[in-house]
C-alpha cells in the first residue's frame, strides 16, 4: 500500500474552505486508490515554479520533516504537471537524500564516530511523483472491468503521459542507435513518439467500433420508442444505487468510493400506470478539474448522456459543498455539448442522511426555490423513500408523449 505526501498549489486568493475541499478530495482519491496519506502540504503561489512546480524551498521544508523515506512511497501533486517537472521532482527527491547522506558522513568524521556508523539516508529511495491525472488514471485502471474501459484509459494515458507511461522519463532523449532506427541521429523520443501515435490511432479505431455498436443499440431503442434517462452527477453521489433501485438490476456495482462506475450500463424502468418501459443509463461520475483528455477519451461512454431524452442530475444532498458540485457537473455537461432543451431533473439523493427534521425541511424549501426549473425531487436511493413520486412523474410524462 503506497504511503503518500499530498501537495497542492493554490492561488494566493484561494479561500480556506476551497483549499480544504481540494485537499479533502485529493485525500479521497488516494484512499480510493488504496493508499495512505502521511502528510499534506499547501503552497500559495501566483505562478508555479517553472522547473519543479512546487517551490524548491517549500519542497525541502517538507522533506526535512521526514527522518527517513521508509514511510514515503509517492508524492502526489494536486495539479497537472509537465513530464519534465515530474522528472525534476523525482530527481530532487533523490538528490536531497544524497545530500543528506553526505552531510551525515561529514558529521560522523567531525565527531570521530565509528566507521560502522551508517547514515539513515545511506540507501537513497526512488520516490514516485504523480500529478492529479496520474492518480485518477491509476484509479480508473483499478476499476476498469471491460475491454472498452481499458482502451479508453490507455488512450487517456497516452494523451496525458506520453513517454512516461513506459517509465522511461527523460532517458528517451538520448540518442538511439543500432538495428531498427530510421536515419542517423534519430532519438529514442522520436521513435517512441511515432510508436505512441501509431498505438493511439489503433486504440481510437477500436473504441470507434464499440461506439458504433452502442449507437446501434441506442438507435434500436429509439425505433422501439423507448425513452432513455441518463444518470449524471458528481462521483459518489449515488447514481449506481439509484439505477439499481429504479431498475431492480441487482448486479449493478455499488461502492462508497470515487469512480466506482467507469462503463455506461443500462437497465429497464417499468412504469406501472402506462405499462411501458424506459431505459436508465448510468455513466462515469464527474469530479472537479476533470482533465479534458479524460473527457475526450471517454466520449463514447458519455454519449449516453448526449443522446438521452431525459437527464437525472443526481446530487448528494448531505454534502456541505453541494452547490459547488452541482456547478462542476453542469460545467462538464456544457463541455459535452449536452442540449439545453433536454428535460432535466435534479434528484436530491441521500435524504436519509439528514437527521434533523427542521433543518431538512428548510433545506428542501431552499433547494425547491433555487432549482424550481429543474423539477427537484428529494429521495433516498438506499431506502427507496420517495422513489414512487419520481416513477409517477416519469409515468405521467410518457402518457402525454
Major sheet: 6 strands, mixed
* DSSP summary: helix tally: 12
CATH T-level fold name of the largest domain: Rossmann fold
CATH architecture of the largest domain: 3-Layer(aba) Sandwich
Helix content: 40-55%
% residues in beta strands: 15-25%
Radius of gyration: 25 Å
Query: Would you tell me the overall average pLDDT?
Result: 82
Distance between the termini: 54 Å
Structural class: alpha/beta
Find the count of extended strands (DSSP E, 2+ residues). Answer: 10
Q: State the name of the first-level CATH class of the largest domain.
A: Alpha Beta
CATH superfamily of the largest domain: P-loop containing nucleotide triphosphate hydrolases
Whole-number total of structural domains: 2
- Which strand order do you get reading across the main beta sheet? 6-7-5-8-9-10
Q: What order do the SSEs take from the amino end to the carboxyl end, as H and E? A: EHEHEHEHHHEHEEHHEHEHEH
Features:
Rossmann fold, elongated, 401 residues, 15% strand, 4-stranded parallel β-sheet
Tell me what you see in this structure.
The chain is α/β, with parallel strands linked by helices and 401 residues long. It has two domains: 3-143, Rossmann fold; 220-399, Rossmann fold, CATH 3.40.50.300. Helix content is 46%, strand content 15%. It is built from twelve helices and ten strands. The chain has helices at 16-33, 56-64, 83-111, 132-143, 147-161, 188-223, 239-247, 292-297, 299-307, 322-335, 357-370, 387-399; strands at residues 3-10, 36-44, 74-77, 128-131, 227-233, 265-271, 276-282, 310-316, 343-349, 377-378. The strands form two sheets. A six-stranded mixed beta sheet has the order 6-7-5-8-9-10, sandwiched between helices. Strands 2-1-3-4 form a four-stranded parallel beta sheet, sandwiched between helices. Helix 10 (322-335) links the parallel strand 8 (310-316) and strand 9. Helix 1 (16-33) runs parallel beside helix 4 (132-143), helix 4 packs antiparallel against helix 5 (147-161) and helix 5 (147-161) packs antiparallel against helix 6. It is elongated and about 90 Å long. The termini are far apart. The model is unreliable at 166-181 (pLDDT under 50).
